[in-house]
Amino acid sequence: MKYLEYTPLDCINDFLSDVNLGERTIKGCLEAYSCKHTGTDKKLSLSLDYEILDYLGKSSDTDSSSPVEYLSSRSSRKTLIYLVLTLYHMYPDYDFSAVKAHQFFTEESWDSFKQIFDTYMFEASKEWVKKNEGSPLLDTLYKALDEVVKLAECEIYSYNPDLDADPFLERGSIWSSIFFFYNRKLKRVVSFRFYCLSNLAAEGFLTDELRYEEDDEIFNDMDM
To answer: What parts of the sequence cross the membrane (predicted)?
Structure first.
C-alpha cells in the first residue's frame, strides 16, 4: 500500500486537524492509498490470507453468525485484506486480525454515510461554512473523494470495533467513526476517520500531569 498525496484532501485535513467547539474538539483525517503492495505488504497479505483460509478450514457454514460464505469468495478476501492493510498503515503498532476485523466491517451506501456524517459533523460543518464562505463541507468532501476514487464506482465500508479491539480509542473520546472508500478498478482506497474528544477530559489529564511533575520536584528537593 502506497500513501498517495492529493491536494483536494489536504484542505479538508487542514480544517479537521482541530475544530474546537469549546467543551469538545472534532478532528478528522483523510488518507489515500494505492493497493499496490510495497515493503512488507506482500508478506503481510499472505499472512492475512493464510489466517482466513485456516479459519475457513476450521469453521462450519451451518453457523448463521459465521462469515464463511463471505470469506469463501476470493474477491471478498482480497477486499478484506486491502482494508486490513490500510488499517495497518494507519496504525502500524496495532496487530489486526483479518477474521476478527471482518466482524467489524459493514458495507454502506453513500446515503448511509451521509446520514452518519450529517449527524456527527453538524457543528463542524457550520464552522467550515463560516471559514470558507461557500460550499458545504459534505459537498467539498464528495468532490474530493470523487476526484480520488470516483464515488460512483466505490464500495463503502464502515469500521466499528469493540472497545477492547479499538486502536483508535483516545483519552476523552466521545465518539469515533471510520469509513473506507474502495475502488476495485483503480485499486485505490481512501480512509476517513472523524472523531470527537472532550476538552474537559484533556484538560484534566494535563492538570494531573502537571501535579505529578510538581510532586516529583518536591520529592527531588527533599533530603532523604
So the answer is: none
Residue 218: exposure state from Cβ atoms within 10 A (0-12, 13-18, ≥19): exposed
Taking CA atoms, 69 is separated from 23, 52, 222, in Å, by: 46, 12, 67
Question: Is 176 in contact with 165 (CB distance < 8 Å)?
Answer: no
- pLDDT tens digit sequence for 102-160: 777 888 999 999 999 999 999 999 999 998 877 899 999 999 999 999 999 999 999 88
What is the torsional sign of CA 109, 112, 63, 166? positive
Q: Alpha-carbon torsion 115, 117, 121, 124, what sign?
A: negative
The domains of the chain, with CATH numbers, are: 2-218 (3.40.1000.50)
The SS3 assignment for 177 reads: strand
Residues in the chain: 224
The beta-strand segments (E) located in 53-134 are 105-108
Other CB atoms within a 10 A radius of the CB of residue 66 amount to 14
pLDDT in tens, 194-206: 999 998 876 655 4
Supply the DSSP symbol for 119. H
What does the alpha-carbon distance between residue 72 and residue 70 come to, in Å, rounded to a whole number?
6
The Cβ of residue 19 has, within 10 Å, a number of other Cβ atoms equal to 21
Strand locations in the chain (E): 2-4, 19-20, 24-34, 105-108, 154-159, 173-183, 188-198
Environment class of 128 (CB within 10 Å of its CB; exposed 0-12, middle 13-18, buried 19+): buried
